[in-house]
Amino acid sequence: MAGTINTITAGDIMQRPVLPAPPGTPVNLALEKAQSGGYCGIVLFNGQKVTGGCTAAYLETLDPGEQPLDSYDYCTRIRVVRSNTRLSEIIARSDHSPAPTIVVTQRDGKPAGIIEYRYLAHWLWKKLALTDSRLAAVVDTVNEAVTMIDCDENVVCWNKRAEKLYGISAEEIIGRSIKSFFTQLVVTQVLEEEKEIRNSYHQPCTGTHVLINAGSIRQGDELIGSISAERDITELVHLHQDLSRANTQVRMLEKEIKYMNGALDPFKNIMGRSRRLAETVSKARRVAGTDASVLIRGESGTGKDLLTKAIHRESGRRNKPFIEINCGAIPPTLFESELFGYRGGAFTGADRKGKPGKFELADGGTIFLDEIGEIPPEMQVKLLRIIQQNVFYRVGGNRPIKVDVRIITATHRNLEEMIAQHQFREDLYYRLNVVSLELPPLRERKEDIPELVYAFIKEFSQQHKRGINQVAPEVMSVLLGYSWPGNVRELRNVLESLVIMAEGNTVQVEHLPGPLKTKVMAGTGPETASTLAELTRRTERDIIARALKETMGNKAKAAKALGIPRSTLYYRMKTLKLESH
After folding, report:
1. Where is 10: in which H helix or E strand?
2. Dmax of the chain from CA atoms?
3. What is the CATH number of domain 275-440?
4. Who has the most CB within 10 Å: 102, 305, 336, 416?
5. Quick check: pTM over 0.85?
6. Is 142-232 CATH 3.40.50.300?
7. Within 10 A of 270 (CB to CB), how many other CB atoms are there?
8. What confidence tens digit (pLDDT) does each residue in 491-539 have?
C-alpha cells in the first residue's frame, strides 16, 4: 500500500477478484458462480464495455431466481474508474455522480475489482486508525516535546515528552487554546508568519530552556496549523552557567594569585595608579592576548618599551623571540639589511654567509619598532608589504621568506601631521594603528611620583648596597613640583644619584642635583612651598593607607611592600594620623 493518502489509488483499495459476466446473467447463476469461485463481486461486461456490477454480499440479498441481474437499478448505477485513479479524485467525483458501486478496470478496459462505498468508508476508517496509531507512536518515541495546533490555535497534539517538560497532561490541554497556557510561543509565531525555525534557542516559560524546530502544516495549498518540536536543554544550560561561573572564579583566582605574586605579572614594572595610566594598562592587558598590531604613543621616557615587553610576556608568544629596533638609531643606508637581512655577497663588505634580519629572527614572536616615525619613506612600503603578506626578501636575495610576527610600534611624534605633510604613509599608519595606547607624561600623573620614588629608592639601595629608606618631606615637595621633561626615565636617574650621594638613611634637599634644586626653588615662594608640602603629605598618606588596606592591616607586610623599615612606617603613620588603620 502506498505511503501517503495522496498517493492511494483505486487499485490499492478495490476488492478482488471479480467475475466478469455477460449482460442478462440471471441472479441465481451469478450467485452460484460467485460463491463457488470465491469472488468478491460480479461485473457485467460485454467484451467492450462495463454495463453493471455488484458485490457478492449484495447478490445474497436478492431472490435467487432467473431474473436478469441488470434488471436491478442498484446493479446498473455504477461508476467505472481505472485502477490508477487517485482516491482523492474518487471521493471528489462521488459528490457529483453518486453511485453505490465503483467498478475498477485495467488499462485494457477489463474488470480488475470493485469498490462499494460502504466498504470504502470502512477501509478509510481502518486507514485513519492505523495512521493515528503510527503518529502517536512517533510523537511519543521522539526525544522532543511535540506540539501541534490548528488554525484557531487550539492544541491538537501534545505528546508525553511535552507532558513531562511542562507538567500539563494531554487531556488538560488538547482542544484548548495554547495561549491559555503559554505567552511566548514560537508555534503561534510560525502559524502567523508562515515560516520555518530550525535549532532556535527559546525560553517558553521561566526556568525552562529549549532548542526548537517549528514549521507550518499544509494540506495542499491550504494552511491548517503548525507544529513544533522542542528539545529540553534546561539541564545543559544550568551546567553551562555553573561551568561559566566556575571558569570565571578560576580566572579571577588565577589573576589574584598572579597579581599577589608580582614576579608573575608582566605589567608589574609599570608603576603608578593614576586613572589615565590604569586605563592604558587595562587596555594593554586586554589586547595582549591577541595578535593585533599596537601603536604606543607617549613622550620619551614614559616607559613605552616597558609596556611593549609587558604585552609580549602576557601574550601567547611569550616563549618566542622579542626583538627591539630603534628606528631612529639606524642609518638609512643600513635600514633594509638590518630589518630583512642580506644574502651572502649582496654588497661590498657583506658577510659571505649572509645574515638574517630582525624580522627573520623574530619569527613566531614579537618585533618592537620604537620611534616608528623615523623610518625612511622608501622603507615604509616594504614594511607595509610584510604586514600584508608576511613575506619579505633579503637584500640581494630572490627567495621569499615567510614569517609570523606580531608588530608593536611606538612613537613620540604626531603621525597624523606627518601624513598630512606626506612624510608617513596613510595606509601603513592604519595597519600599525589597530589598537592605540597612550602613556601619559609624568607631569600629568604626579600622584604616581611618591610610589615611583619609594620603588626606585628601594631598587637602587639594594643595587648599590646603601641603607637609604627615607625621603625628607622637603625633597618629596621638590620632586612633586618639578615638571619632569624626561618623564620616568629622568626621575629614575635622579633617584639613583640621590641614593648614591645621600648620607645616613634619609635623602635630604642638599642631596638633590643642583640644576633640579635651582629650577624648582627659584619659583617657589612660601605659599607654593606650603601647597607642595600639603600635596606631599596627602599623597604619602594615601600611599600608606592603600598599602595597609591591601595587606589587611599587617604593618610588617605593608612596610615590606613600601620598601621602608617598620619603625619608619610607625613614625609616618603617627605623623600622618593613621594610627586607626
Report:
1. helix 10-13
2. 149
3. 3.40.50.300
4. 102
5. no
6. no
7. 19
8. 999 999 888 888 888 888 888 887 676 655 554 444 444 455 566 677 7
